[in-house]
């Protein structure tokens, strides 16, 4: 685990209360992988807990991280209000990322994201595309005002857009029309727990590799406090694994999704398009 003083080099609002923050990180900061998150300390925040924020992209040459989060409380409001040039303390936990090796060049990867769960899929789509993988993405939001990442995704993927109210793309959920007949070699999913449950039911026993990135409320972010454990099947046993260190990416078939709390997302996982990602 390495911490460092990152510097804000860009900030913009990209949806209703959704902010993209660009952070330049020092040379000692490890290179992130798609699916990982960065734990950020909010300057001046009375709370000691850091905020886990999804890595939406990474510029290796400039060493700039792009983080996407929703403003849901005092801490994220403070972070969103910091000026360009401000320093923030950030570290990359020793967490898992999406296994890019699950799909080979020339094969098809299916990416499915709801709401803030779309954020880590932007980085993933670009990384897969660079490896010669054909990328199909299904992304869902509550309404047109919440849509983000569409331009970046379309540059590297075939994208299907859904909104709850039909104000952008097709009206419905990202899982509409999906089933075992869907053409892909591996799938990567990030979104609210109800969406993960539906996806798991659809593809139970399918056999193809399917991975899910989970969100969780966490304290230390280093695996010590065990505040973010989720039930995972390992053989015939059910083990509790830490989202911050053993995850946040897990094989979807191994997750005991019924035991994963829905209150990890900002809205308690109410709408399929409103959760996902980290806060």
TrEMBL record:
UniProt GO molecular function: 2 iron, 2 sulfur cluster binding; flavin adenine dinucleotide binding; metal ion binding; oxidoreductase activity
Q: Which PROSITE patterns match?
A: FAD_FR
Where do the annotations place [2Fe-2S] cluster binding?
Answer: 220, 225, 228, 244
Residues at which FAD binds: 51-54, 68-70, 75-76
* Record keyword Electron transport present: yes
- In its keyword annotation, does this UniProt entry include Hydrolase? no
Q: Cite the FAD-binding FR-type domain residue spans from the record.
A: 1-101
UniProt-listed Pfam families: DHODB_Fe-S_bind
* The protein's required cofactors: FAD; [2Fe-2S] cluster
A GO BP annotation: pyrimidine nucleotide biosynthetic process
Q: Which domain of life is it from?
A: Bacteria
Q: Which InterPro entries match?
A: Cyt_c3_hydrogenase_gsu, Dihydroorotate_DH_ele_sf, Dihydroorotate_DH_Fe-S-bd, FAD-bd_FR_type, FNR_nucleotide-bd, PyrK_electron_transfer, Riboflavin_synthase-like_b-brl
Similarity comment text for this entry: Belongs to the PyrK family.
Protein name as catalogued: Dihydroorotate dehydrogenase electron transfer subunit
Q: Which organism is it from?
A: Hydrogenibacillus schlegelii
Q: Tell me the classification of the organism that encodes this protein.
A: Bacteria, Bacillati, Bacillota, Bacilli, Bacillales
């Amino acid at each position: 685990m390495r911490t460092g003083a990152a510097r804000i080099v860009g900030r913009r609002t990209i949806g209703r209360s959704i902010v993209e923050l660009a952070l330049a990180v020092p040379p000692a900061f490890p290179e992130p992988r798609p699916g990982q998150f960065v734990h950020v300390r909010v300057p001046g925040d009375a709370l000691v807990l850091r905020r886990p924020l999804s890595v939406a992209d990474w510029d290796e040459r400039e060493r700039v991280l792009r983080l996407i989060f929703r403003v849901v409380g005092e801490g994220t409001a403070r972070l969103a209000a910091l000026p360009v040039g401000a320093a923030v303390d950030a570290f990359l936990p020793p967490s898992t990322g999406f296994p890019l090796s699950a799909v080979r060049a020339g094969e098809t990867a299916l990416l499915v994201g709801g709401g803030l769960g779309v954020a880590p899929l932007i980085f993933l789509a670009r990384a897969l595309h660079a490896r010669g993988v054909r990328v199909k993405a299904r992304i869902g939001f509550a309404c047109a005002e919440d849509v983000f990442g569409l331009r970046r995704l379309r540059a590297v993927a075939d994208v299907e857009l859904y909104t709850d109210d039909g104000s952008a793309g097709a009206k419905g959920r990202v899982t509409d029309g999906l089933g075992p007949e869907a053409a892909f070699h591996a799938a990567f999913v990030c979104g609210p727990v109800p969406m993960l449950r539906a996806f798991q039911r659809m593809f139970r026993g399918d056999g193809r590799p399917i991975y899910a990135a989970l969100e969780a409320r966490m304290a230390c972010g280093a695996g010590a406090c065990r505040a973010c454990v989720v039930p995972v099947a390992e053989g015939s046993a059910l083990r509790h694994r830490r989202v911050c260190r053993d995850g946040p990416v897990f094989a979807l078939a191994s997750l005991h999704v019924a035991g994963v709390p829905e209150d990890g997302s900002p809205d308690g996982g109410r709408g399929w398009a409103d959760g996902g990602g980290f806060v």
